[in-house]
Each structure stands twice: as structure tokens, then as C-alpha cells.
Amino acid sequence: MKVILLNEVKNLGKVNQIVEVNDGYAKNYLFPNNLAIIATDDALKVNQNIKNQEKNVALEKLKYYQNTKKDLESLTLEFHLLTNNGKVTNAISTKQICAYLHYNYGIELDKHKFINFRPIKTIGMTEIVVKLYSDIVAKVKIKVIAK
Length: 147
What we know:
With 147 residues, the protein is an alpha+beta fold. It is built from 3 helices and 9 strands.
């Protein structure tokens, strides 16, 4: 029997995937647990429409993050750190960087997307890496000035 999966089923398939299963497995497990529906012509058409919409959304996200990457790599963020007798007294965190980008450029970033980030405690230029989307990685330049 051909069914369309409504949820991911371990060792069987992912959401909206069409799979061939035994009749008993479908009737006794998949259907009662709302994990699948029978793959009728109408259900296949709806499933195809959903897949097309998901592809369009994925393409839009890809374009958005490619543009965001270009924007981020063209910027040099400027921060001021307090110093006392030549020693830095505080650090720049991912939260501060995200807030700076949001308020000054309207760019939304998740603070957990920074790769191998350590709080910045040095004066001068620093480059940090941000994973924006599946394989899109941006390098952001940060200029730290002593205050």
C-alpha cells in the first residue's frame, strides 16, 4: 500500500514522503497514530503542491541569506572597550554584536549562529564567522577602539 507520511517515522521516511508499506502496518500503526494517509490521486496532488511551496520558501530563504551575507561582509562594525592602564576591562559578546546589527542595520542574527566565538577582549581588528543558513557562512569585521 502506498501512503504519504504526515510525520517523520523512524526507519521509514520523512514528512510528505511517499512510501510503500504493508497493509497491516498502515492500518494498525500508521493510520491510528495519524502518521500517514493513503496516497490517493487527490492526496498526491496536495502533497505535490506542499512540496512546491516548500521549495519556493527554501529558495527565498537562500536568496535572503545570500544577500545578508553580502551585507555583513561589506560592513565593519565599530565597538569601544574600556581600558584601565592599558588593560581591557570588559568584552564584546555575541549579544552585543546582534543588538548592534539590529539597531544600526536592521539585520537579525541569532547569537547562537556564531562559529567558535570567544568574547572579544583585544583592541584592533577582529574577524568573526557567522553561519547564516545551511552552507552560507559570513565573515564579519569588527574594529575595537580603546576608550
